[in-house]
Structures are given as C-alpha cells and as structure tokens.
Design goal:
The chain is of the alpha/beta class. 51% of the residues lie in helices and 12% in strands. The strands form four sheets. An eight-stranded parallel sheet has the order 2-3-4-5-6-7-8-9. A seven-stranded mixed sheet has the order 13-12-11-14-17-16-18, sandwiched between helices. A two-stranded antiparallel ribbon has the order 1-10.
Length: 758
C-alpha cells in the first residue's frame, strides 16, 4: 500500500513538473506606447450585426474605456445599427475614428450607410477618414467599377479622405482603384495565405514593399493586420494565443520603426463571425468577455497555462486514487497505471480549457459534444488495455489459472456426461471426434450424441452405427424439429443424460480431445463452489492456408491474454466447446436458454450471477477446425458480436443493481468487454470513416479539423492498441512473429463486420 501511494505521489509530482517545463515563453519586443489604430465592432457575445438587439451607448462607452489606453484611433465597419453612436463616444476618450460604410447587395441598406457616414463625418471632427466597403470585391458584392463609382460619390460629399478596404493583391491588380481613392487601405493577413507565425511579419513587410513599388507616392495604410488566437490551421499558419501576441507585438514594433501606418484587427473577439469558418471569431486582442488575451510588455506566455495545469494535475491525482486499492500492485504496475491516469487527466483538462476559450454556435457545440461522446469509449478502452499491459508485463503471475493437471481427490471420480450436438456435420469428422472421446483416460463417463434437424440419413446413419460400435457409453439421439438451435439440441442431450451424471461436458462436433482432459480437470469440482471449468479453443488445421494461419493466431490472443486476465476476476466468457459444468449449476440457472444466439456465453454469465465459481485453464485439451472460408469467419464474428449485445440487453440489470449477483470486479470486466465491442470495433469504425472523409481536406486544402484535442486521443488510442497487441502477444501467446502480424490483419478484417453487428 505504501509503495503504491508513493508511486502515485511521485507520478503526480512529475506530471506537475512537466507542466512547468512545457510552459511556452517567448521574448518579443515590448510595446509601451498606444497603438496607431484598432478595428472595433461593438458587438457582445450574444449580439449579431444583422438581427437582434443593437449595441447601446453604455455598452460602447464601456468598450472604448477599455480600449482607450491601448490605441490612438479605432476603425469601424458600419455607420448604422449602433455604429452611428461610436464617433461621439470615441471623442469622449480622445480617440480618432476611421468610419466604415458597409456595402453589400442590399442597395437600400447601402444608401442608408452612405448617408449616415457622410452626416457623421460632417458632424464629428474626430472622424479622420471614411472606408467605403470592406473587401467588397473579394466577397463579390461589387465589381471594381461599381466600387469606384461608390468611392467617387462619397468623396464628392465627404469632408475627410475616402478609401476602400481590400486585400493587398487587389491593389496590385487594379491600379484604377488605387487612383480613385485618397489613400490605399490594404489588408495584409499572412494567416489566410498560410504562412507560419514566424514569417508573418516579414511577409507583411514584403507585401507592403510591393505596394510601395506599385504605387509610388501614394499614401498606404495597412488597414488590417492580425493573427487569430484559436481555430483551425491554414496550411502552415497555426493560431494560438502566444502566436497572436508574438506576431502582433513584432509587427507593431517593426511598423513603428519603419513609419508604416497600420490598423490592428481587431479589438474584441466576435463570436458571430461564423461565416469565416472556425477561426473568424478569434482575432480580438480581448476575448468576448472583454478580458485581455496577452500583455504588450514582458515575456509572452499563456496566462491560462497554470490554471489548465492545475486542473490536469488534480484530475490526474483523482483518477489515480483507484490504484491505491490495488494493494498487491508492483512498482512497475502502479507506475504504468498512474502515468496513464495522469495522461487522461491532462487531456480532460485540455478539453475543459478548449471549451472555456472557444465560442460555439449550436452546430459547433454539437460537433464537439459528439466528438467527446465518440472518444469516451475509446479512452476507457485504452485505459483498460494499458491496465492489462501493466498487469501482465509488470504484475504478479495469475493466481486462479489452472496451468497444470490437478491432483485427483481420493475417491472423487464423478460421472461425466459428454454432450456432442451436431447439425449436418460430415460423418467422418464427427466419427474422429467420437473416437477421441472413446480414448479418454477417465473411468466414469458417457457420451450423448445429438443429431438435430438433419433428416438426410447420409449424415446421421454412419454416426448411429459408429456409436453402436463404440459401446454402451455412447448414446445416439436423432431428432427432427428441434427448436432453439444449438441450445435446443443441448436441452435434448440433457434430457437423455444419465441420472447419476454430476458433470456435464460439451464439445463441438469437430473437436478432437486429449485423453487427459477429464482426468486433469474434473478434480477441480471437488470444491463445491466450482460451477464450471473452461478450456480454450484451438485448431488442428491452422497450417492449411495463410488465411487459416492468421485466423488461428488471432484466436490464440483471446484465449491466452483476455481469458487469462478475466479469470482472475472470476469473469471469463464461457464459449461452449471444451467446457465442463456441474449439473447442479446448470439446473440451478434454468438450463440452456435460446434467448440469445450465444447460448454458451449466456449460460456462463447466468452461472456467475448465481454465485458459482468458474475456472479457466490455458492448456490445450482439444483441437477443432477453423472456419473454412473468410465469409464463414466473418459470419462467426458477427454472431459473437450480435449475441454479445443480446446478452447485454438480457443481463444489464445485473450489471446495474447492487444485488445483481455479480461482484464489482465481474461487472467491470463484462462492462469493459461490451464497451470494447462498442468502442474499439463500432465507434472506432465510425471515427475511422470520418477521418478518411476528411483526409482530402487536410491533404489538398491544408486545413486540419477537428482540433487536436479530438485527433490526439484517436492517435493515442491506436498507439496503445498497437503496443497492447505487440507486448502481450510477445509475453503470452506462443506464436511466431509472422503469425502475430497475420493475427493483426485477421482482427482488422472483421472490424466492419463487428461494427455492423452492434
């Protein structure tokens, strides 16, 4: 206990130290004087320029009070809808105003904008220029000629200089537009050109120089320059708070040094700007709550780093607390689990920070929520796999596993009734199975062969003759119209079982058992609490083809890894063949049920719910035949997956109720097992498909959405799955490397099949 607690404390301390080491800091030029100009839109988080409540004078006054220490002037984009209030209030704070006229295809609105702007310019002396339209040609609202006519009209009426705002390339390509304005208002936004933050200012100066060369003697203002603090990447341009602070501070420093007129876009984040994708909302120096995102002096760092780090460490500690209950955990086991818990804590804290620092319209919120819902099962499964790695690689050896022949108890030789259900099975194969049963080195057994729903004598007549030849121990039953599939056949076998048989054994019609099967395992039933003993499936035709070789390797992983570990919690999945069960246990749970298509798994869970012990051995006591074709392999896996969810529907109350008959450890094993079907196989397929759909966007457009908080867990879960497979196969499964690789391919080949089933 002390060792485990010390390990948890150590890992939490290391986690905290990593947050200290990973704090990003960047030395950038400090800006002490007010900026030349800042774009200002007077909308709060809940407002939109096209509908709803207009900004009030009190709201604008509060905004400009915040901005006045940071800037000498502001640029607006509209002269109506509340924008007409800005110049007068700006004058209260000594701020100059570059007044905007919003131009679009609504001519009536355009006329109102123009008239309002001209009137404001004549009234307020702090208005120093008018900007007619904002990227109007880029948005295809007006042609160049139409825009020139609007500019000329406003110039004739305006007492101040008039221009229009366009991206810098428009001014290069259309010198006639430059001739029509009093000065060039160029938008240079390196983010939209895909340049990294480290090149943003250099590229801006380069583009500005090209404008100077194209229009010598013309006054040029960089009317928009900025960098987003969040959103998606554009090619090599990554948004971020540190990137935003560094780019803006470096640009202002260079612009002041070179004597460049500029305007920073923008003052406050604008959550309504969903038309600019997931990045348009985040260009503000302040967030929508009017909190500064960064300082203009000193070292640039993320002010929220310590808050997120503290939450991450706290969550890591809380998620590590269950490890303290593992009193027998080794140092390596506890360390692995604690590291995993802290990694999940860090991710959860990052998700929380993402939610806190981003704005969400309904669609974006639903998308993020759906992403988290889809990821949650993958994260839980990844943790379960990490736990399995820790236990197997660093933990103690299995304690409940029957890994050797059990000593025979004095005088304990209960009668065993071996049940062999068969439906249209090849007679030669079934006779081989019965011959192996006849060779069992156990003195007290019978064999009940049930041929069901097989009217063709070619299938059942040779078996009847063979049972007669093998002697009185072998009972032959042939019935048509048996309901309930395999479960119905097994109920029929039980009805013909000898009255003194205490143990029921079940094998499939293709299984060749070893002579020591009963002799080695029946002694376990000397313990009256033992209800079942399960031996693994194995196959004698694994070398038939490359496909069969791979399939056999895939089966082996389940029986040598998962079943061994589940056995430690008395929570194995009973899989029918090679199973021994106490007759009293079978009767106590109502016998074989046809409620599901996996009657064996259903029975095993019922036996556990009634308090019986089930033991597992990983020794091979019998070998059957693999599915003949890949289609048969997929059909079998579909039945297992679909049947598993039938069992979940039937038994979910036992998982939820405290008195459902299962221990906490058993509930956990079954819940994770079902979640594995749902998460890794079905939701994993859905996530994979969504990722594939998005690949062309990443490859050809250069935009990486969804955010890293959603993609990193997917990559991490894949890495954990790969590590889990490789490590545990090497530790537990005695197969060559080539067969191990084949097992991976076999497992992946049926993932879509499982997804369809669930």
């Amino acid at each position: 206990m002390r060792t485990v607690a010390a390990v948890v404390a150590l890992v939490v301390c290391v986690h905290a130290g990593l947050w200290m080491l990973l704090q990003r800091q960047q030395a950038v030029a400090s800006i002490d004087a007010p900026l030349a100009s800042i774009s200002y839109s007077p909308y709060t988080r809940s407002q939109h320029p096209d509908y709803g409540d207009r900004p009030t004078a009190e709201q604008i006054r509060a905004d400009l009070k915040i901005l006045s220490p940071y800037t000498q002037a502001i640029r607006t984009y509209t002269s109506t809808g509340g924008g007409e209030l800005v110049p007068a209030i700006a004058a209260e704070f000594g701020l100059k105003v570059t007044l905007g006229i919003w131009i679009d295809k609504n001519e009536a609105r355009n006329e109102r904008e123009i008239q309002a702007a001209v009137a404001l310019a004549r009234r307020y002396s702090n208005i120093n220029a008018i900007v007619v339209g904002n990227e109007t040609t880029l948005r295809a609202e007006k042609s160049i000629d139409e825009l020139i006519r609007l500019v000329q009209r406003v110039k004739r009426q305006s007492p101040v200089p008039v221009t229009t705002g366009e991206i810098w390339t428009v001014w290069i390509e259309h010198p006639e537009l430059a001739s029509a304005v009093d000065f060039i208002a160029a938008h240079i936004l390196p983010y939209w050109d895909g340049f990294p933050a480290t090149q943003a200012v250099d590229k801006t100066i380069e583009f500005y120089t090209k404008l100077r060369q194209a229009h010598p003697g013309k006054r040029i203002v960089i009317a928009e320059f900025g960098w987003p603090s969040a959103g998606y990447n554009m090619l090599k341009a990554d948004p971020g708070r540190i990137e935003q602070a560094s780019v803006l501070r470096e640009f202002v420093s260079r612009a002041e040094a070179y004597g460049i007129d500029y305007n920073i876009v923008e003052a406050f984040d604008q959550p309504w700007k969903t038309n600019e994708g997931g990045v348009g909302m985040y260009w503000g120096m302040f967030d929508a709550s009017r909190q500064a995102k960064f300082a203009w002096t000193g070292v640039v760092s993320d002010p929220d780093h310590w808050k997120v780090g503290a939450v991450a460490v706290l969550l890591g500690l809380l998620l590590s607390l269950p490890i303290l209950a593992r009193r027998a955990a080794t140092f390596g086991e506890a360390t692995t689990l604690a590291v995993a818990a802290n990694m999940v804590g860090a991710w959860c804290a990052t998700v929380f920070a993402f939610w806190q620092t981003h704005y969400f319209v309904l669609g974006a919120a639903v998308a993020l929520g759906l992403g988290i819902v889809l990821l949650a099962p993958l994260v839980v499964i990844a943790l379960a796999r990490i736990e399995e790695i820790a236990v197997i690689a660093f933990g103690r050896s299995p304690r409940r596993l029957i890994d050797a022949a059990l000593p025979a108890a004095d005088g304990f030789v209960p009668k065993v009734s071996i049940h062999v259900p068969a439906y249209r099975e090849p007679p030669d194969m079934l006779k081989t199975t019965l011959d192996a049963v006849a060779r069992l080195d156990y003195p007290n057994f019978e064999c009940v062969v049930v041929i069901n729903n097989t009217p063709d004598p070619a299938f059942w007549r040779p078996i009847e003759d063979h049972c007669r030849a093998l002697g009185e121990r072998f009972k032959f039953i042939n019935e048509d119209n048996v309901a309930g599939y395999k479960a119905g056949a097994l109920r029929l076998a039980l009805a013909h079982t000898a009255a003194d048989a205490e143990i029921i054994a079940v094998i499939d019609a293709d299984y060749v058992v070893r002579p020591d099967w009963l002799k080695d395992l029946v002694p376990a039933f000397a313990d009256p609490k033992v209800g079942m003993i399960q031996a693994p499936q194995d196959h004698r035709d694994g070398e038939r083809t490359v496909m069969h070789y791979a399939m056999n390797g895939e089966y082996a992983g389940f029986f040598d890894i998962g079943m061994v570990q589940r056995n430690e919690a008395n929570a194995i999945i009973v899989h029918g063949t090679m199973c021994l069960m106490r007759r009293a246990a079978l009767i106590s749970v109502g016998g074989w049920s046809s409620d599901t298509i996996v009657e064996d798994c259903d029975l095993g869970l019922l036996v556990l719910e009634h308090g019986w012990q089930i033991h597992y051995t990983n020794r091979r006591y019998g070998h059957g035949l693999l599915p003949d074709t890949f289609e048969a392999y997929k059909k079998q896996r579909y039945r297992w997956a679909y049947g598993g969810f039938q069992i979940l529907r039937k038994h979910w109350r036992h998982l939820m109720l405290r008195d459902g008959g299962l221990t906490r450890e058993q509930k956990r094993e079954f819940a994770i097992g079902w979640l594995n079907w749902l998460g890794a196989e079905s939701i994993g397929v859905a996530v994979a498909i969504l990722n594939l759909v998005w690949v062309p966007v990443v490859a050809f457009v250069g935009i990486a959405i969804p955010d890293k908080i959603l993609t990193i867990p997917i990559l991490a879960a894949f890495a954990v799955t790969l590590a889990h497979f490789v490590a545990l196969y090497r530790l537990r499964v005695a197969v060559p490397l080539g067969q191990m690789i084949g097992a991976v391919i076999a497992a992946m080949s049926v993932q879509w099949t499982v997804a369809r089933a669930v």
